[in-house]
Design brief:
By secondary structure, the chain is mostly beta strands. Helices cover 0% and strands 48% of the residues. The chain has no helices and eleven strands. The protein has a four-stranded antiparallel β-sheet, with no helix packed on it. It is globular, with a radius of gyration of 13 Å. The two termini are 18 Å apart.
Length: 110
């Protein structure tokens, strides 16, 4: 996803999101889960498309997050739903690092 048309917000320092972990953030109306996968940061919708559980509270296995409620799984890097009962993908958000900060881009208001 291109970063064009997004406003970036600092959400954490790099050390606040250990490798294999996730952080829940709220930016305006967006509930977002920020993940550290192998030292790279990714952001997806924090709400599962199946039953509104918080994905940041799920179980990270490699680059996949398992929903804590019903075990549906999503690719962290792409937001793609890869295991039942989840069939709808989650939105991804652009992430960038500046010095020791992690920034997430949310869609700019019209």
């Amino acid at each position: 996803m291109s970063a064009a048309g997004h406003h970036f917000h600092r959400v954490a320092s790099i050390s606040e999101i250990p490798e294999g972990d996730a952080l829940h953030v709220k930016l305006e109306q967006w509930e977002i889960a920020v993940f550290n996968v192998g030292g790279e940061f990714y952001a997806i919708d924090d709400v599962c498309t199946h039953a509104f559980a918080s994905l940041s509270e799920g179980f990270v296995e490699g680059d996949v997050i398992e929903c804590p409620l019903h075990g549906g799984r999503f690719e962290i890097k792409t937001g793609k739903a890869v295991a039942a009962p989840c069939t709808d993908d989650v939105r991804t958000y652009p992430v960038r690092r500046e010095d020791d900060s992690v920034l997430v881009g949310i869609p700019a208001a019209d």
